[in-house]
Design goal:
The complex is a heterodimer of chains A (388) and B (213).
Chain A: E1 27-31, E2 43-49, E3 52-59, H1 67-72, H2 80-83, H3 91-106, H4 112-141, H5 146-166, E4 175-176, E5 179-180, H6 188-210, H7 214-220, H8 228-233, H9 239-242, H10 250-253, H11 274-298, E6 319-327, E7 330-338, E8 346-350, H12 352-356, H13 360-364, H14 369-379, H15 383-386
Antiparallel strand pairs in A: 1-2, 2-3, 4-5, 6-7, 7-8
Helix pairs in contact in A: 3-4, 4-5, 4-11, 4-14, 5-6, 6-11
Chain B: H1 3-13, E1 19-22, E2 32-35, H2 40-49, E3 57-66, E4 70-82, E5 88-100, E6 104-112, E7 121-126, E8 135-137, H3 146-156, E9 160-162, H4 199-212
Parallel strand pairs in B: 2-7, 8-9
Antiparallel strand pairs in B: 1-2, 3-6, 4-5, 6-7
Chain lengths: 388, 213
């Protein structure tokens, strides 16, 4: 339990005066917005004492297009394809969070088959997001090319499945209020089962190549440490929170959809450093495979939407609702206020990657400038969601 | 979590605070607590620190704009009307009365507990108006997760959070003057349009070019 008057202390960083008597000058570096390590148009104002970071201020807004305002001028359904563009790696989980918020707002039930389809597509999304993230992280560390391409090869198989199902690789626009847009095409399930069956082999290979790699361990262990107390207080969610050892996974806590029917574990880290955040993603992929195997085995027949739900001319009764899910990057929430008209009066996205960046400075202080790149890489940000 | 017992508990522990339950008629039934800005920090600290509540996680912080509205209601009034042959007769007449509300900005906080795994409790704060009395206390000293989100509300809605450690614009650039998420925001006519053969964009472009030509 932390005190409420001050921020909890970060890792024990003390800035020592430089050896020549503390008379050194600080070097200010602007990292980004066009920088290969920033994963999009993102800028950090960094002040360096030698190689060490003494100040880091993130600067946002390069990709800001006021998503929320645009959605407030649009009908409820009209915003569904636009949510794809938030975190463009995980369009299906974005759709799901928005659909869940609208369903909470209007009290819509989802048929069982649609719930299973949501779980299958959602967990496939998590697989490809985490695979990419570990690939990008290796790339940031200088393992140029190969690990990222291995990850992309696996991701492409999942994107092929999405394309066969929804018509688009990344902008899937798959969910509807009270169900899903299309049912599985013939042979899709068998193909998906093959992909999921083959996935552990990729993970084994990836782990045997890299997990105990000496350079990887030297670069990541003890780097960018985030304390448990600070993580909770700063609202960090997702793999980054669990790497600090906090057991908080909305699939277990809220049990939204039908997650209570599946047995899976929540991997937890211990040190809260970059290595733990990297390992958490690898372990979560194994748990996602477990969920996928169970969901594909139990997938029932039936309708994928409630035929009585009105999709066009949809006007929920006045009121408000907050719906949240465990997206691959953390807690993705949508807060909606209806005034009874076809457009939401207020439409708010709670973006996990923006809020996970709150502690970027705390993690980077006292580290070397080269570590900033991998610390940022381990946060897992997508600027489409950060800037909205 | 039911709000009535929580409300009386907070009122007993934070002397002088004024709370009000804001009902939510939608099926989500997520009701919220309206807190007064004087005691907001004390209420938040109590929710955070009380061992059995332990709201250690502030998930979502957002602003809402409620502009001034005209409320018209029909009232029956007794009036003297001209009766037959010049006499005055009292009669009931229906009249439409219009009242103007001032409008306000609102900040909403969604609180959960990671330790106890319960929630949400929703807190709301309202400013006095939308023009210059737009100050609210910042809850960032209690929950650091409000840091960027309060900056975003300051940027897009113009609520000034007193006690925020670093209140600057976050998404718009520093030289920007207005607050684009407000309902009455008018986008400035300062861009180069790409006229398409139809629609709103073309209409704006024609208007723009006639003004600048």
């Amino acid at each position: 339990m932390t005190t409420s008057t001050a921020f909890p202390a970060t890792s024990n960083i003390t800035l020592t005066p430089s050896p020549d008597g503390g008379d050194s000058q600080l070097l200010e570096v602007s990292m980004g917005p066009q920088h290969p390590s920033t994963h999009g148009v993102f800028r950090m104002d960094v002040a360096l004492d030698g190689e060490r970071v003494v100040k880091l201020k993130p600067i946002f807004g390069y990709l800001h297009r006021n998503h929320e305002k645009i959605a407030e001028d649009e009908t409820y359904l009209g915003s569904m394809p636009y949510t794809d563009r938030l975190d463009y790696f995980c369009s299906i989980t974005n759709n799901w969070a928005y659909a869940l918020a609208v369903e909470t707002l209007a009290g819509i039930q989802v048929p069982e088959r649609a719930e299973y389809l949501r779980i299958i597509t959602g967990e496939l999304t998590r697989l490809q997001n985490h695979a990419c993230l570990v690939g990008f992280l290796m790339q940031d560390m200088g393992a140029s090319g190969t690990p990222l391409m291995y990850a992309f090869r696996e991701r492409e198989k999942i994107l092929d499945l999405f394309e066969a199902l929804t018509g688009a690789r990344m902008m899937c626009n798959y969910m509807r209020f009270g169900g899903c847009r299309v049912d599985l095409p013939a042979g899709w399930l068998q193909q998906a089962q093959q992909v999921v069956e083959a996935f552990p082999r990729f993970l084994d290979e990836y782990e045997s190549l890299l997990v105990s790699n000496e350079i990887l361990m030297a670069r990541t262990q003890g780097v960018g440490v985030l304390s448990k107390e600070l993580a909770i207080n700063a609202g960090i969610t997702g793999p980054m929170l669990r790497a600090c050892g906090v057991n908080y996974d909305l699939r277990k806590v809220d049990k939204y959809g039908i997650y209570d029917r599946f047995s899976f574990r929540v991997p937890l880290g211990e040190h809260g450093d970059v290595y733990d955040r990297y390992m958490i993603r690898l372990l979560e992929m194994r748990e996602s495979i477990k969920i996928l195997e169970q969901a594909m085995r139990d997938l029932p027949e039936g309708p994928i939407t409630d035929p009585k739900t009105k999709i066009r001319g949809f006007r929920p009764k006045p009121g408000e609702a907050y719906g949240r899910i465990e997206a691959p990057k953390g807690e993705l929430g949508f807060y909606l206020i209806s005034d009874g008209s076809p457009n939401p009066y207020r439409y708010r996205v709670r973006p996990p990657s923006l809020i996970n960046l709150t502690v970027l400075e705390d993690m980077c202080l006292g580290q070397n400038v080269a570590d900033v790149v991998i610390i940022l890489g381990s946060v897992d940000i997508v600027m489409g969601e950060v800037d909205r | 979590m039911t709000l009535e017992p929580l409300k009386s508990e907070i009122e007993a522990n934070v002397p002088g605070c004024r709370l009000e339950i804001v009902a939510n008629p939608s099926p989500s039934a997520q009701h919220s607590l309206l807190i007064d800005s004087e005691h907001a920090l004390a209420v938040a600290a109590y929710l955070h620190d009380a061992a059995h509540l332990c709201f250690d996680y502030c998930s979502n912080v957002t602003g809402i704009d409620w502009p001034a509205r005209e409320i018209s209601e029909k009232v029956k009034v007794k009036k003297l009307v001209d009766g037959p042959e010049g006499s005055a007769v009292e009669q009931e007449v229906e009249e439409v009365r219009k009242t103007q509300t001032i409008g306000h900005l609102e900040a909403v906080y969604h609180l959960y507990s990671m330790e106890k795994k319960h929630g949400p409790v929703i807190l709301r704060m309202r400013t006095e108006d939308r023009a210059d009395r737009v100050h609210l206390p910042s809850l960032t000293p209690i929950w650091r997760s409000a840091d960027f989100q309060e900056r975003e509300i300051f940027d897009l809605y113009g609520i000034v959070f007193d006690g925020h450690p670093d209140l600057r614009r976050i998404l718009m650039w520093d030289g920007f003057v207005d607050h684009p998420m407000r309902r009455d925001y008018v986008e400035p006519d300062d861009y180069e349009y790409e006229p398409t053969a139809h629609d709103e964009v073309l209409r704006k472009a024609m208007q723009h070019h006639s003004e600048t030509a």
